[in-house]
């Protein structure tokens, strides 16, 4: 069962998978139609590729997204520390311009787009660097500014890496519809025609096949799908 497909794709995947399982359960009945078993093997291969790409779709961004979140937290903390020193100095010196440029709230930083956060961190760094000698007693030192500059660069790289992962995710998503078209061709052009060869001997099986291949709205489920019905008695 694949967990990382869109709802319609998940329904289609489960339906195609049940078609394949139905053929497996009745394999002995297709001894005279080996081409059908070969078609089912090709169908399984396509479904395996869909499953792999669906996993890639999620894995492409998970690690980089987590890394970006961690670096954002560090950058916010450092920016607030230096900003607080600057605002304190600006209040003492009655400097409303510096106060306005340096002032920022944690919630605002946490909600900023990555580019805006980097821009704010850079502005705070430049303001503090120009007044470094006056900020040491307020907790901002050379080491503090070096850490802020370095963390801004690390955060920028984390954002770039996530964007790269999102590009890979898009590539995977575009490939999945093509594979579903391949599966349709196997089921509706190959397997469907070959199943007609056993209709006379096993009319119940043929009717069951036609029912199983109908796509149903199964929703997004996180438990294994139920097994297809047992084959009818010979």
Short description:
It is built from 8 helices and no strands.
Question: How would you describe this protein?
Answer:
This protein has eight helices and no strands. It is rod-shaped. The protein has helices at 7-25, 34-93, 96-102, 106-111, 114-130, 132-135, 142-199, 203-212. The chain has one domain.
Mean pLDDT: 83
How many structurally independent domains? 1
What is the strand content?
A: under 5%
Shape: rod-shaped
Residue runs with pLDDT of under 50 for 5 or more positions:
217-225
Helix percentage range: over 70%
Please report the distance between the alpha carbons of the first and last residues: 30 Å
Number of helices: 8
- Which structural class do the helices and strands define? mainly alpha
Give me the Rg, rounded. 30 Å
User: How many beta-strand segments?
Assistant: 0
């Amino acid at each position: 069962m694949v967990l990382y497909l869109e709802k319609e794709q998940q329904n289609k995947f489960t339906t195609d998978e049940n078609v394949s399982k139905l053929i497996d359960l009745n394999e002995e009945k297709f001894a005279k139609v080996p081409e059908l078993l070969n078609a089912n093997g090709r169908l399984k291969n396509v479904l395996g590729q869909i499953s792999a790409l669906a996993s890639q779709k999620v894995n492409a961004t998970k690690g980089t997204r987590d890394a970006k979140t961690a670096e954002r937290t560090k950058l916010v903390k450092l920016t607030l520390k230096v900003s607080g020193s600057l605002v304190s100095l600006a209040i003492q010196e009655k400097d409303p311009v510096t106060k306005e440029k340096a002032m920022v709230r944690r919630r605002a930083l946490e909600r900023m787009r990555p580019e805006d956060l980097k821009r704010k961190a850079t502005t705070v760094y430049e303001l503090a660097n120009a007044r470094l000698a006056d900020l040491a007693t307020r907790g901002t030192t050379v080491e503090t500014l070096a850490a802020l500059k370095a963390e801004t660069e690390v955060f920028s790289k984390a954002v770039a890496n996530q964007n790269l992962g999102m590009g890979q995710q898009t590539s995977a998503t575009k490939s999945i519809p093509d594979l579903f078209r391949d599966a349709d061709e196997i089921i509706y052009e190959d397997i469907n025609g070959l199943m007609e060869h056993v209709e006379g001997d096993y009319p119940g099986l043929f009717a069951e096949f036609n029912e199983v291949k109908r796509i149903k709205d199964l929703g997004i489920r996180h438990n294994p799908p139920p097994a297809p019905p047992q084959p009818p008695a010979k």
